[in-house]
Structures are given as structure tokens and as C-alpha cells.
Amino acid sequence: MNMGEEVSHLKAHVNTFYNNGALQRASEQPHLKTNQKPSQINKKVGSQEMRTREGMAIAKAKGKMRGKKPKLTEKQQKELHKMHKTGDHSISDLAEIFSVSRATVYRTLQRDQSA
């Protein structure tokens, strides 16, 4: 297939998507209206941002928002600290034993020191 045939083939696919309603032109998308003033667009984005922040605050108050879960459980972290304190295992050994990266081992050890 030469370049011209490939381009016409791609155009046919795009047209199919557009005709099926899968694609919209920028002027047809409600959040990308080209006849709106920038201040109107900023108000919409600002109110959406505000609703997101309100939802996050509610979730945090309910205790449902905790961020990324730790790679190691509390029990594993205690065991990692215990093994590290003995001096029998290197950081690389601990990372391999617990199936985590060396950075995770360092981070876990650092949290214990700062707490």
C-alpha cells in the first residue's frame, strides 16, 4: 500500500467515526464552544474545579480518601525494620525479600526515622 492509499484509507476511517457520532468537531463539543468568551470558559472550568474540591473534602472527612496505598503492610514494615536493624541484610536483599524496589525500602526506613 503506498502513501496515498494509506492516507485515503485513514480518511475513510475518520469519516466513519465522525458519521457514527464517535467524533465531534471542536465547535460541537459543549466545553469547547468557539463562540464563548475566555471568561465564560474559565467560569465553567472554575466551577468544575470547585465541585471537585468539595467532593474531595467530603471524601476526606468520611475517611475514604487516603491516597496511594502503601506497598508494604504495617506488619511487613515492622519486619523490614527489624531485619534492617540486625544488619544481616543489605537494602538490595530486603528489596528482593519483600518484592519491592530499593527506593521503597529506603522510603519505608526513612518514615520510621522521621516519625
Summarize the structure.
With about 120 residues, the chain is an all-alpha fold. Helix content is about 65%, strand content about 0%. The chain is flat and about 70 Å long.
Q: What radius of gyration results from the CA coordinates?
A: 27 Å
Average pLDDT, all residues? 78
Which secondary-structure class do the elements indicate? Answer: mainly alpha
Report the total helices: 5
- What's the structural domain tally? 2
Biggest beta-sheet profile: none
Shape: flat
Strand content: under 5%
* Low-confidence residue ranges: none
Distance between the terminal alpha carbons, to the nearest Å? 64 Å
Protein described:
With 115 residues, this protein is mostly helical. The mean pLDDT is 78. It has five helices and no strands. The chain folds into two domains: 43 residues; 41 residues. The chain is flat. The chain starts with a helix and ends with a helix. The longest helix has 24 residues. Helix 4 crosses helix 5. 65% of the residues lie in helices and 0% in strands.
